[in-house]
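Q: Got a minute? One more chain.
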Amino acid sequence: MNSGSGSGGGRGNSGAVSGHGGSGHGTGGRKDAYAYGRRNGVNLPALRGHNDALVLDLLRGAGPAGLGRTELAARTGLTPQAVSKITARLGADGLVAEAGRAASTGGKPRTLLRLVPDVRHAVGVHLDRDELRAVRVDLAGRVVAESEGPLDFRAGPEEAVEAVVRAVARVVDPSGPPLLGVGVAAPGPLDHRVGVMGRVTGFPSWKGFPLRGVLEGRLGLPVLLDKDTNAGAAAAAGAWLRATWPDADAEADINADADADAEVGADVGAGSGTGVGAGPGGDGHAGGGPRTCVYLHVGTGLGAGLWLGGGVYRGVRSAAGEFGHQVLLLDGPPCRCGARGCVEVLCLEAVNRGDLAGAARIVGEAAANLVALLDVDRVLLGGRVVAAAPDVFVARVGAVLAARRLDPARPVVALAGAGVAEGAAEMALAPLFGHAG
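A: Always. Here it is, folded:
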């Protein structure tokens, strides 16, 4: 399929917003603020970009219904005067617009503000072992163009780079909004910090290839490189964000009596109406997204993306999430990683036999180990194997977790609601909203 909306190349379409790209605050510093449904701003001119990002993040989380300046001030800890200046500046940049007025509670009706999604875009690319998918998204994370086609990962990095350049050209609209950047999701291991590929299992020619730097040189845009499973976790969080948006038709009723310090969140499956189990409520935060979840990707390989404390957890060496290579069966069949009886080899053997129910049970057993270790709120499933039998995987993984739970509460099991390419684009958007990419 190729439904890209543009035919031009990726150059000359940067245009990131000044002051938003490097707010520099990671997930650790946001923990306390998120716990109370807000992130704290600082009334210092030097932190203008930081405070702008806080406001944009809250408006994104509010969706089309928007928020009033009073709510923005309360949730950021900024003064009303500071919020007025910030929103005026963001309005001048075209990032913020009025969303109507809240119902009057006796005084002058409050003006509501919303994020303008179409003013900037980003591109996400999923480099799989046998196919490539690219999407262009708006600031709300909604796909506006996409393209996909075959890819031979074994052919090596140079051929893959050319495929990425062509795919980005297909989805870019040269006359459209400026691009903030390109997110690229690839099989791990890789070093997210420096943008260099590791020794991908079964593909030794990729080891040490500086994929991010090469693509930045070819595209003329900022590029972020991460593992496909981490991008999947970011996609799941983005889908949750959109699922928890207030109904735009009811925005007046929702905002009229809003508690400025109320925590955002509801206990539903991310991006899916199909969920198993009942996790603890109130796990959302001011910017949207589940606070703790694991994304399990079942495709040409198996891996996990960890969303902990409001952001992707990568580990010190970008090596977290090697879910597929935990050993379930001692002296089991050999895995391509060199070990025996790994989850990946057991699951993919079941898939090749046509036993998707058996494959789902194996994923469930491995997921139960992870849940027992991390105590996450939700387990989100994605990848082409899951897409072939979504109900089977949700039901079987949920059944294993129910049978092995050590606590009366167990995590929700649901479909991820968005793909890896969308997650790669989500990470390219992240700096604008004050999150680490």
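A: The two ends are 29 Å apart (CA to CA).
Q: Perfect, thanks.
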